[in-house]
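Hi V.,

You were right to ask for the full record rather than a summary. Here it is.
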Amino acid sequence: MSEILSKSAARNIFYGGSAFFFVVFAALVAQSHYYAKTTSTDEAALTAEVVHGKRIWEKHACINCHTILGEGAYFAPELGNVFVRYGGDKDPQAARDALKAWMKSQPSGVQGRRQMPQFNLDEKELDDLNAFFEWVSKIKTNNWPPNKAG
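Predicted structure:
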């Protein structure tokens, strides 16, 4: 084997391959930052209410039980599409009202079911959390999650 590949040839292959893949990596980074014209989120719709709703999501550690766009725990339903599941694509106000009623009624007390704790959110917090869920539901996710049931 030593007669086929010398130390200097192996070193040249290593450095040459490393340089090649570094150039490819840099080109892909540049392409994704400078030439990609699409974005997955609507920054224009990112209101103060949406930001406050995200803070409520973080403050109460909702991700410890729920997933959002596949990130989080799998104890409770996916919430990336909860606004659409409640009919927000057809009647946004009815979906907001239904989600608020659901969050206010927790824990449901149904035996044998997982129970969501009562966080005692006020009306403004519920509205902002709904705004966050509505904003998340409009993110282009390439049909994720595949199961719309949550």
